[in-house]
Each structure stands twice: as C-alpha cells, then as structure tokens.
Amino acid sequence: MADPVDSPVDARSIARRLRVAPGELPLALAALHAALPVGATWSASLTGRPPASLAEVVEGGGFSVLEATTTGRTRARVVARRDHTLPDFVAPGLRLLVVGCNPSLRSADAGVGFARPGNRFWPAALEAGVVSADRDPWGAVRTDRVGMTDLVKRATNDAAAVRPAEYRRGLARVERLVAWLAPGAVCVLGLEGWRTAADPRARPGVQPGELGGRPVYLMPNPSGRNAHATVASLAAHLRAARALADDVASARPGDAPGDRVRPGRDRGARGPG
Question: Can you give the pLDDT at residue 268?
Fold first, then answer.
C-alpha cells in the first residue's frame, strides 16, 4: 500500500515532498505519484540532483517529463505529468532489485505491481521469505530492502503489446539506475523481455554478465498466464536470486566486477538446484 497522504497536494506541498537527498528522490516521487490523479501536472525546483539522469529518475517515478531546466550544478526545475503506470520503488542499499517487464493496467490502477488475480509473484515472494508482507511495495523496499521497477514503464493489458525498441530503451534506463543505486543483485522477471532487450538465447538463472556493475538473475514471468510457473518453482528462483545478492554482499572488498551484459552474446548459467 502507498504511504498515506498527509497534506493537500498543492505547489507548496509538492516542493516540500521533493526537498530530499538525491537517494531519497525515487521514493518521494512514488509518494507524489500515489497522491496525484492520472494526468495531473506539477512543477518543482529540485536541489542535489542524483548521479543518474534526473529526467530518467522522474520518469521512473511514473511521470512524463514535460520540461527539465538545469540551473547551476545542483539545481533544476522540472515540469511533469502523472502517467497511468507504476512508480519505481527503489532506494540505495537494496538487497535485491526486482525488474518486471512492464506494468499491467490493473497494477497501474492498484498502485502495486503484480496485482492481477492469479499473478504468483507475491505468494512466491512470501514463500521464499524475500518479502514479509503481501502486496506492500513500501514495506518491501523499506523493511525487506527489495526494490521494484520495470523494463518498460508504459502500462498495457498484455506484455505482448510492448515493442522491442521499448525493451531496449528500458534496459538502458534500468542499467543506469542500477549503476547509481548499486543493489546487491538484479532479478529480472520474464524471459521474453530480457531476451528481447539483452540476449535472445538467455536461460533462467544467473547471467554471465552484469548490469550496471551488479549480477543478474533471470526467472520466468509470474503471470497467471504462464502455466508452467508454480508458486513453489518461482519461490525457488527468488531464493536463488536472494542468495546471489547475499554472495555479493559477503564477497571480499576489491573483488573485480564481471563483464557488463552484452546483448545477444551472454547466456543464462545457473538456476535453482
């Protein structure tokens, strides 16, 4: 569930909501997204711009950037419109970043990813112990240190409506997000989206390359339309992704990072066993 709205959403309250440290900006944008109706336009001056592209961070928050003007090295003015999509639920210090293909219209309405009836993500994540509360992205990011984003922000009724170019552009955005926030590992849900964006021959499991300097785990889509995926099998994949993140956390400082993911060349290597 989204954070409660504690004040009217006017120009002054928006400026106050976004007056945060750069690493806190994505969650501040997520809270603003929950407080505004679809199509609402806002503007604000931001300070302490994040290392990632400011426009991409705002877009990741579920907004279309209408104007972004830089004033000096650490100030910018942004005009944006609230889209019918999901915001990123991300922050520094994540144990695991979960990356879906794109939000469904049902999820965009609910403000929670994987909200369609029959989607197995939340039951599997609970069974795996990756999250501690059902359908609570705020609790996931703040308590469990599990963040959520999507390769493509545009919400559709069916992932088949997403164009290949959208997946490729989205992968570039997620790569820059990962390089900025440095989660322990990245867990991509949905073979088709990853194969389209990164490697047409990829298999479920740990991918040989990295994304934004972090290891990648690829697993099947938890959608109810994927008849081959069960709660138990998806939970096993999520446990393996969590173990990958924990391996990174326990690695010795100074270990050399692996190669970056190279579209079309790397293959999946290791899954739950």
Answer: 42
State the pTM of this model: 0.89
Q: For residue 89, what are the CA distances in angstroms to 77, 78, 236?
A: 23, 20, 23
Check the CA dihedral 31-245-212-134 and report its sign. negative
The answer to whether residue 161 sits within a structural domain is yes
The whole-angstrom separation of Cα 168 and Cα 151 is: 8
User: What gap in Å lies between CA 37 and CA 108, rounded to an integer?
Assistant: 12
Q: Which CATH number goes with the domain that contains 204?
A: 3.40.470.10
Q: How many domains does the chain have?
A: 2
Burial zone of 110 (CB within 10 Å; 0-12 exposed, 13-18 middle, 19+ buried) = middle
Q: Pick the residue with more confidence: 115 or 5?
A: 115
Are 54 and 148 in contact, with CB atoms under 8 Å apart? no
Do the beta carbons of residue 114 and residue 222 sit within 8 Å?
Answer: yes
Amino acid at 35: A
Dist CA 1 CA 99 (whole Å):
19
Nearest to 229 by CA among 121, 152, 122: 121
Q: Residue 35 pLDDT more than 50?
A: yes
